[in-house]
Amino acid sequence: MNWISNYVRPRINSIFSRREIPENLWHKCDACGTMLFHRELTDNMNVCTNCGHHMGISPRERFHALFDGGIFSEVEVPAPLADPLHFRDQKRYPDRMRAAQKATGEKEAMLVVEGEIGRTPVVAVGQDFRFIGGSMGMYVGNAMIAAAERAVSLGRPMVLFSATGGARMQEGILSLMQMPRTTVAVQMLKEARLPYIVVLTNPTSGGVTASYAMLGDVHIAEPNALICFAGPSVIEQTIREKLPEGFQRAEYLLEHGMVDRVTPRTEQRDELIKIIRMMMKMPRAIKADLPAPGPDTAGEPLQVAPPEPAQDQSDPK
């Protein structure tokens, strides 16, 4: 046994060898170019801590930050036909679906869950733009109907987080048929007199904007989110004119009365709690882990007992 080659040299190499650093520890902001530590970015819900730019976030990550304790349960959605049109472009449609499922870890472009936000029960729906652009296919139509039926059966409000490029071309006319189907789902909520709140994220466009994304009782948009039917480049090429600065962005739509609020992602939880409890005629929400005030005590000042007089501890003698 060679002691130098078998022990000393490996020991020296282990001390001075270069340690491999994971490549995903830092993320570069798309807007300002700031390098952000991944934990810091995750804690801030994928919002740049330097410029406030809102990056993409998956529905599951959003719901973990939104629901109390990050606890929620999924609502089952009926599965549609896998490939109704036998569509093929650069890939077969089933191959494209499998690739999207592997990349995102999700079954489809929409996630339906239920839980409590600030001890307020809700049914929430989120679209995943990573899954074929969050496109609306038959599964998305089934998901909206399942969410609406669940909300009506439980008497809960429904919250939608939209992030989509529109209808799914691989399903053709069947995708466009989801526009009236989802409109009927929203009507079910309105007939049951349950709030339907929409949070428009970047981007929300196409047939989704032309249907369930713009039928809410309250519309909240994330800062600088693109909200449109046809994109700015398509409109510019059609009318051959330069569009106004910030055209079809959330702030532009707020100025022109198309949305009700523009709220940063980190403030949406408190905003939703306030709006939902107001629309459901519930007592105001309170901070900390305390039970909600009853209807008879809401708004009343706390009754504090006066202090007892101090006893004289001196010697009576």
Descriptive overview:
With 317 residues, the protein is of the alpha/beta class. It has two domains: 22-55, no CATH class; 57-279, 2-enoyl-CoA Hydratase, Chain A, domain 1. 32% of the residues lie in helices and 15% in strands. The protein is built from ten helices and nine strands. The strands form two sheets. A seven-stranded mixed β-sheet has the order 3-4-5-6-7-8-9, sandwiched between helices. The longest helix has 17 residues, at 138-154.
Name the beta content range.
5-15%
Based on Cα principal axes, name the global outline: globular
Strand order of the largest sheet: 3-4-5-6-7-8-9
Number of helices, counting only DSSP H or I runs of 4 residues or more: 10
Helix content: 25-40%
Label the structural class.
Answer: alpha/beta
Count of spatially separate domains: 2
User: Could you name the CATH topology of the largest domain?
Assistant: 2-enoyl-CoA Hydratase, Chain A, domain 1
CATH architecture assignment of the largest domain: Alpha-Beta Complex
Low-confidence stretches: 297-305
Order of helices and strands: HEEHHEHEEHEHHEEHHEH
Distance between the termini: 96 Å
CATH homologous superfamily of the largest domain? 2-enoyl-CoA Hydratase, Chain A, domain 1
Please summarize the sheet with the most strands. Answer: 7 strands, mixed
The value of Rg in angstroms is 26 Å
Number of strands: 9
Question: What's the CATH C level of the largest domain?
Answer: Alpha Beta
On the 0-100 scale, what is the average pLDDT? 89
